[in-house]
Amino acid sequence: MNDNHFKYTNSVIGLPLFFVLFLWFVYWLEIRFDFDFTENGIFPRTLSGLQGIIFSPFIHADVEHLYNNSIPLLILLAALQYFYTRQSVAVISFGILLSGLITWVIGRDSYHIGASSLIYVLVSFIFFKGIQTKYYRLVALSLAVVVVYGGLIWYIFPKVEEKISWEGHLAGLITGFILSVIYKTPEYKKIIKYDWEHPDFNPQEDKFMQRFDENGNFVNILIVELENEFPSYYSSQFPINYEIIVDKKNESKPES
Q1: Which end of the chain has fewer CB atoms surrounding its CB within 10 Å, N or C?
Q2: Contact status, residue 66 vs residue 19, Cβ threshold 8 Å
Q3: Taking the domain 3-188, which CATH number applies?
Q4: Nearest in space to 113 (alpha carbons), one of 1, 187, 37
Q5: Where does the Peptidase S54 rhomboid domain start and stop, copy by copy (predicted)?
Q6: What is the phi/psi pair of residue 26, to 5°?
Q7: Which parts of 150-202 fold into alpha helices (H)?
Q8: Can you tell me the distance from the alpha carbon of 213 to that of 105, in angstroms, rounded to the nearest whole number?
């Protein structure tokens, strides 16, 4: 595996920083001009609520809500951009759209806002994609995501906390898994090299290639019999004399 795929660029920091700053800018607009963008969020199964599929990740209820989403987004977007550069833009774009659409279908009758669904998309995609690639660095990244953000799994279930959109979290988790299956990463696929693919391969020393002549015809290897290479018995120039000794037991005869 060639680790040259992992290259640091300005986008590794620039993309997540721009995304998070834009979220704060939108919230600043609400405070500065007394806007209320909540009604632009996802309202399930209504025509007007469809706009929230695009707008909802950029709308937050308060500073705490925005702050809690900003830190994970910075970390996860940077990891996505560094390890999955080719797929990052598509994962973010379609992650927002698909998770929003699923939320619109399964959500309760309320406005669903916040970038937490995108956070679940990123966690899910990074985890499942790393396991699928079987590449040790990406598997390690998957395990790190589980250790840091594994607790998020509880918030995909209803009634854990009333104020959160568990539907959006569940939609993000499902979306991340779907995208991990759709978007392939052939650059991380382990390439199997056979002996004859190596530059130092010598066909004359290969036992299999020796079975073929210069025309590609199969031939039997000649077995050369080496006669008298090893004597069948050991010989010595010194005479050997054998003496037969009768075995006598050192026992007393019984008295009569």
Answers
A1: C
A2: no
A3: 1.20.1540.10
A4: 37
A5: 52-183
A6: -60, -40
A7: 166-182
A8: 69
CA-to-CA distance for 117 and 168, rounded, in angstroms? 5
Q: pTM, whole model, 2 decimals?
A: 0.74
Following DSSP, what letter does each residue of 224-245 receive, concatenated? ---TTSS-SS---SS-------
CA–CA dist 57, 35 (Å, integer): 17
- At position 77, the amino acid (one-letter code) is L
Per-residue tens of pLDDT for the chain, all 256 residues: 455 567 788 999 999 999 999 999 999 999 999 999 999 999 999 999 999 999 999 999 999 999 999 999 999 999 999 999 999 999 999 999 999 999 999 999 999 999 999 999 999 999 999 999 988 889 999 999 999 998 999 999 998 888 899 999 999 999 999 999 999 887 777 655 566 566 676 766 767 666 776 676 777 766 555 555 555 555 666 676 767 676 665 555 555 4
Distance between CA atoms of 246 and 241, rounded to whole angstroms?
A: 16
Full DSSP string of 15-31? HHHHHHHHHHHHHHHHH
Half-sphere exposure of 212 (CA within 13 A, CB side): 8
Neighbours of 137 (CB within 10 A): 15
Alpha helices in 7-163 (DSSP H): 10-33, 52-55, 63-83, 85-106, 116-133, 136-149
